[in-house]
Amino acid sequence: MSTYFNTADWAVTVIYLVGIVxxxxxxxxxxxNTKDYxxxxxxxxxxxxxxxxxxxxxxxxxxxGVPAMAYGNSNLTFLQIIIGYVIARVILSVxxxxxxxxxxxxxxxxxxxxAFGSPARRTAAGFFLIAATIAAGVRVYVTAIPLRLMLGFExxxxxxxxxxxxxxxxxxTYVGGVKAVIWTDAIQFFLFLAGGLFTLxxxxxxxxxxxxxxxxxxxxxxxxxWFNGGFSLGMPFNIWMGVIxxxxxxxxxxxxxxxxxxxxxxxxxxxxxRKALLxxxxxxFPMFILxxxxxxxxxxxxxxxxDMPLQAAKADEIFPIFIMTNVPHVLKGFLIVAILSAAxxxxxxxxxxxxxxxxxxxxxxxxxxxxxxAFYLRFSKHSxxxxxxxxxxxxxxxxxxxxxxxSAALGLNGLTNGAMLGAMLLVLFWRKxxxxxxxxxxxxxxxxxxxxxxxxxxxxxxxxxxxxGCIITLxxxxxxxxxxxxxxxxxxxK
Length: 494
Hints:
By secondary structure, this protein is mainly α. It is built from 20 helices and no strands. Helices cover 77% and strands 0% of the residues.
């Protein structure tokens, strides 16, 4: 076990783990039906939903990976992506949020069925299940790597770290449903926010010149540069990518992906849903600034102290190593808690969303037998547990994959986001139509994006994937629908 952790650090970690599980169980008491379990009885206040949205999209990979990005051969140009994050939320609050409150809606894929029929709904929901399962499982594994290092487990013991935060997340998600998920998300948001703030202001106390000197040194090296006005499809961080590519990408992740939409559905009205989404826009920008600047401070620290013993050369491991070697005990335990908070919020959100879609969009939608709400509540809980086992399995077996496959799995959401957004936009544009143009459009879009990812990823940066996939979906569906309309009109004339 770790020589960097002492009894006090373990005490802080254990207190958090026990406390957050008990809090989640308490929040989820009194559930009677699937509306309680998946929609929180539509009584969650907008500010709680807003906190949950940010906690859900801010995983442990953000806590560790974003500082690593600023630490490495980069600067603050990633901030241009966040411009799109904000623009997309404003657009969605106007055009999409009202649709979520028309009827008894459990997922955005019900809207697809209302417009185009059940085959289109199952295709969209199936895309979500496959992409979310692989992406969530891989994120669990990637998150477990630094946690394993920090907690002192051997490489062949990573399964214990995976089991630790997946099973604990499963415990309160299984019992308390989305209400427990949202309120634990809110607590976890403040924990990893506090962890980021502490690190940002703690590092300068170790530097020559303090925080002022640190910013001066970073500015001289170009590490504070954030704007890039040049245009290139292969360049991931420029203002055009932020305003266009990232906007379309987040319109999909926050408007067509159950992971985020489920949170909005727990609000009691359109106005509350809009406030929740816009509140998350207010929070997300300073959140990313915080973690990018933390990475910049780490760069200054290891520039001033280049002989400090780093146990790994990878940028992704710099922040965990700094925590283990430079942060005092107790505070070290608190930062582990911050990372666990980010990890558990992502896992619990994925479990609830996966269970919701598999129960409501597949089992209940397909089942022709009349069953009680008590039955569906039990099925929902069993589905949550089953997805927990699946995520553990995906996370565990990810370690045996080649790095290229690992990267592809992490990028799978980018391959399906365009197709899912295209389906939702067709709901807006067409209102009604045949299911098969939509189904074919989504499948062809996915196939094209797989080709682009494998052969053109250097020429086309990942923030553009959603836009390209969406255009393909819309184009194919439109052509096929026009062909169907032409044949129908021809038949009528005869």
